[in-house]
Amino acid sequence: MADKMMACVRKDPGVLVLEERDIPTIETPEDVILKVRFCAICGTDNHAAELAFPDVVMGHEVVGEIVDIGSGVEDFQTGDRVVASCMLSCGRCANCQQGEPSACLNPEGRVQHGIVLDGCQAEYVRIPFAPFSICRIPDALNDQQAIVAGDIFSTAVGVLERASLSVGDSVAIFAQGPLGLCVTAAARAMGAGLVIAVDPDPFKRETAKKLGATLVLDPGKTDVVHEILNLTDGFGVNIAVEAVGKQETLQGAFGVARIGGAISSLGVYGFDFNDLAIPVAHDSLVPDTFYHRSFITTLCPSGRYRMQRLMDLIQYGNIDLSPIWTHTMPLTKIVDAYEMMKNPKNKIIKMGILPE
Ligand SMILES: [Zn+2]
Ligand SMILES: [Zn+2]
Asked: Which residues contact 170 (CB under 8 A, 6 or more apart)?
């Protein structure tokens, strides 16, 4: 094995370069080293490009082949094709043991900084806490189908699970980026009734229909809150999902959640979220004040056996998320790929990266 590889490195705020790096090596007994087969650029990578620490290798979504394995990793072998959780979870601390591994308390073995895996936009990556954080991929699934179990599909299912979705529930999803689209598909797969997808971009609305939305609304053309209340006889929806982390989408979600319902958000709001003005221009069935709903936020739920269940759902439930994969570029062009993603005219929903 060579000892150098190419990696996408964050230099200064917003400045990414492709550069030669040492191939990572085993540092703790629970590490594995993956040869990357497929990785992806996430919406949060744009925040990371601005905010992450210098010299971090970018990327937290990966499928790879195990090429080296720590002495404490049982059940896996070199050559295994695995997907990794995007959140770093030890599997042992109080939060992990109480079913909240995405809020793991254990800083040991973390790749660089914080709670999110990094280093995946490279030819090789070190995955810590491997016994908890990687899962073998069934032969029936290709890399693109499996990678979502480590991040966006897990978050999408989680945002509905944590809102206690019941069969037949009405769900409105504000924003149809890769995550919002996965929520649309997950709502359909989990037995929702009416699924309403909201996005200003016609291409994303079209994609939402392919993934199971009953109907799509353009917030640029209609008063979406009013429209959704009309569609639900003035009651509002059982679950209103905020799927991008913006104040306007969160306010929209607050405006359409019915009494007893839930506002469920997967957005990462950062540091400047304030002044939430809850729109309460409700029809007579809903009092014009805000009470008796649940407000839920969700990080990406992680863990080996959760990823196994999600891959089972994709495989046996015939979940087809292929419409989100609009683009694939080689690792050598990854800096261009980030640039392309900034222009909405390029109609990019999810960008896959192939190391070779
Ligand atoms: Zn991600
Ligand atoms: Zn933990």
From this structure: 192, 193, 194, 195, 196, 232, 237, 238, 239
Instruction: Compute, in angstroms, the gap from residue 104 CA to the centroid of ligand 2.
Output: 4
Cα–Cα distance list, 172 to 279, 320, 344 (Å): 16, 20, 23
What are 215's two structure tokens?
A: 């109907």
Residue 15 CA to ligand 1 center (angstroms) comes to 19
* Ligand nearest to the CA of residue 84, numbered in listed order: 1
Residues within 5 A (CB) of ion ligand 1: 42, 151
Distance in angstroms (rounded) separating the CA atoms of residues 81 and 346:
32
With both helix axes pointing from N to C terminus, report the angle between 43-51 and 334-341 in degrees, rounded to the nearest 10: 110
Give yes or no for residue 310 having a pLDDT over 90.
Answer: yes
Rounded distance from Cα 2 to ligand 2 centre (Å): 33
What is the CA angle 298-181-254, rounded to 5?
Answer: 50
Shortest-distance ligand to the CA of residue 30: 2
Instruction: Quote the pLDDT of residue 280.
Output: 53
For residue 199, the model assigns a pLDDT of 98
Which ligand has the minimum distance to the alpha carbon of residue 148? Answer: 1
- Name the pairing type of β-strands 195-198 and 215-217: parallel
Domains of the chain, CATH where assigned: 4-151+300-354 (3.90.180.10), 158-297 (3.40.50.720)
161 burial (CB, 10 Å; 0-12 / 13-18 / 19+) is middle
pLDDT one-digit tens code per residue, 130-187: 999 999 999 999 999 999 999 999 999 999 999 999 999 999 999 999 999 999 999 9
Q: Which ligand is nearest to the CA of 129?
A: 2
What pTM, to 2 d.p., does this model score?
A: 0.94
